[in-house]
Amino acid sequence: MPEFSLQLFIFLTCVGLYTIAAAIWDIRIKKIPNKLTLPVFGLGLVYQGAFNQWAGLLDGLLGFAVGFGLLFLLWMIGSGGGGDVKLMGALSVWLGFNLTLMVLVGSAFLAMALSLGIICLSFMTNGNRATKQKYFATGLKPGEKLKPGEKLPAETVENRMRRRPMGYAVPVALATWVIVLFYLPQWPFVKKADAEQKSSAVSSVN
Predict the structure, then answer these.
(1) Given 3-state DSSP classes, what are the helix, strand and coil percentages for the chain, each rounded to the nearest 5?
(2) In the predicted model, what is the mean pLDDT of residues 3-22?
(3) Which among 26, 183, 186 has a CA at the least distance from the CA of 103?
(4) What distance in Å separates the CA atoms of residue 66 and residue 102, rounded to the nearest whole number?
């Protein structure tokens, strides 16, 4: 295990509280507010600059580019929620490029596995018809029925988000903690060798 330090304490505390708060918000109201994500994003930049200098800022911004950018593309095509984009955008600044990639992959697998489990449990407890109406695309709100001769409406993005078995914040929180704890012996995640290499790369470009 790494030696305890102020940097390690701040990292674990902020990342831990943020992922827990986001998961609770997502479970309770299915939204992740800006008043949570924007301060965490700003604090992440301050953290990287204060403890890891330019190499940390570069790593955090690269993490933001992949975390925010990928989910933004999914949101643009209607396959993700705006809260998911903001969630990863703020978190990825703290995690940096490598850990953000791992969390994206890990959370995707966890989201699929947990969603499949929830749907299977619903089939067993609520039956086939209720489960299909709740979780599968119908274009109707829960409990809504078509009138005789009425055509099935096109599904809106809001309805698509509503029928998701679970929010994205829960698998993100679980994946983040598994990956951070697994790689904790390699702390700090931004090392001096990386800092010198990235600094020289930036200098050569200039």
Answers:
(1) 75, 0, 25
(2) 95
(3) 183
(4) 11
